[in-house]
Design a protein that fits this description.
By secondary structure, the chain is of the alpha+beta class. Helices cover 25% and strands 45% of the residues. The protein is built from three helices and eight strands, in the order H-E-E-E-E-E-E-H-E-E-H.
């Protein structure tokens, strides 16, 4: 009887360990697909010579058949492969199943980051490559890492804050960008 018990225990232990390894290899909790995170907008909140604060709107798209409760997030924003801003939020949000939600996050940047981007404009560059990467924190699901790259009109973005550089609608041709990529 003890030999049968040992074999049964070893089989269960092996099966449980195998399941844990498979779950770890999948990289996502409960076999869920990663939500997508994209920049939907940005606006100046306040600032001074040394620090500027923005409200960055992130669009979170859930491709899963279950809702995703988000407890917060942290991320870094790079412009033209240069660190630009960091942000964190502890706001709770539920992204509906097969749906999307937006989250506004306050980010901070310094004078040095702005000067680097104005330098890009001085080189005749009017587009900025961006990268936003970070982690969505969820309670029971653990969390999801995200990493999104895109491009934005640097002249329009900086023009909103400085006035003169704005080339909005009717002031030249604008490339057609998806709504989540417009600034």
């Amino acid at each position: 009887m003890t030999l049968t018990f040992r074999r049964s225990f070893i089989r269960r232990l092996f099966a449980g360990g195998s399941l844990l390894m498979l779950a770890g290899c999948a990289g996502l909790p409960l076999g869920l697909d990663k939500p997508e995170v994209a920049i939907a907008g940005i606006r100046l909140l306040d600032g001074n010579l040394f620090e500027q604060r923005f409200v960055l709107t992130l669009r979170i798209t859930n491709p899963n058949r279950v809702e995703i409760p988000i407890e917060g997030l942290s991320f870094d924003l790079d412009l033209n492969e240069q660190p630009f801003a960091k942000g964190v939020s502890n706001r709770a949000l539920v992204v509906p199943r097969l749906g999307e939600a937006t989250m506004e996050v306050t980010v901070s940047t310094g004078l040095n980051a702005w000067l680097k981007q104005f330098g890009e404009l001085g080189k005749g560059r009017d587009k900025a490559d961006y990268r936003v990467r970070g982690r969505l924190v969820t309670g029971s699901l653990g969390g999801f890492d995200f990493d999104r790259r895109g491009q934005l009109d640097l002249g329009r973005l900086l023009g909103r804050f400085g006035g003169r550089l704005d080339n909005g609608p009717g002031k030249g041709s604008e490339p057609a960008l998806p709504p989540s990529e417009r600034f």
